[in-house]
Write a structure and sequence with these properties.
It is a single chain. This protein has 3 helices and 12 strands, in the order ααβββαβββββββββ. The protein has 4 domains: 48 residues; 29 residues, no CATH class; 69 residues, Beta Barrel (Elongation Factor Tu (Ef-tu), domain 3); 62 residues, conserved putative lor/sdh protein from methanococcus maripaludis s2 fold (Beta Barrel), CATH 2.40.420.20. 20% of the residues lie in helices and 31% in strands.
């Protein structure tokens, strides 16, 4: 209508006041249109921010909070179960972490079933409470496993100078590093050790240096010190 009145104004078929009024109305409508577009863009942004999209196809395995509940920042609210990608977190010590690398394949078991998993992520920050590092493993998609099930993995750790001893031979007071007493040339030696594993009454330890054959004290260590000589019969 504005364009028509502008044409009529050129042949003086419409008054200038009427033309000015229509021009003002068009400017107001354009400003209102710009405001509505900005509001629409803000609404779309809010909608996208309030919508979370899972990074993988799957289903909701569990809902951890009730509708309307107040949750803290970072608090889990739902558990997602992927239908194509299966992952499992594992927490390891610093000693085992150095034997792992990205894309490394490990042997895992779940009951009688054995399969291969792949190291997908390696955390370089330890949990402050447990001092363990999180490792994320990728499981084969054909594996029939459900969320919450546990798997066992095997990490091969190269070990040298390993000794199998009675559990009573190793002293660990919880303050100092584990150690044992050995008898060499009539003298008692204090030897620090690192515990590798133990089972029932046996313990496996390693030492910083290869010691060869050792005569290890397995009882009565509380009455000994490295300064004592071999007691006479």
């Amino acid at each position: 209508e504005l364009q028509r009145n502008q044409t009529l104004s050129g042949i003086q078929a419409v008054s200038q006041n009427q033309l000015d009024r229509l021009t003002s109305q068009v400017a107001q409508l354009q400003a209102h249109n710009t405001t509505l577009k900005a509001q629409l863009q803000e609404a779309e942004n809010n909608f996208h921010e309030s919508t979370l999209t899972a990074p993988f196809p799957g289903e909701v395995a569990d809902i951890l909070v009730k509708p309307g509940a107040i949750v803290a920042a970072g608090q889990p609210v739902i558990v997602l179960s992927g239908s194509e990608i299966f992952e499992a977190p594992v927490y390891v010590s610093n000693g085992l972490l150095k034997h792992l690398r990205l894309n490394q394949q490990l042997t895992a078991t779940m009951g009688p079933q054995s399969f291969t998993v792949t190291v997908k992520e390696i955390s370089r920050s330890a949990n402050p409470a447990s001092q363990l590092f999180k490792i994320l493993l990728s499981l084969p998609p054909e594996l029939n496993v459900l969320a919450g099930q546990k798997i066992t993995i095997s990490i091969h750790e190269p070990i040298e100078n390993i000794y199998q001893l009675p559990v009573s031979a190793v002293i660990d007071d919880g303050i100092n590093e584990p150690y044992l007493y050995s008898l060499s040339n009539g003298e008692i030696q204090h030897i620090p050790v690192r515990v590798v594993d133990f089972y029932q009454n046996h313990i496996w330890v390693t030492m910083a240096q290869k010691m060869g054959e050792l005569t290890v004290v397995t009882d009565g260590q509380s009455g000994l010190s490295p300064q004592l000589n071999k007691p006479r019969p």
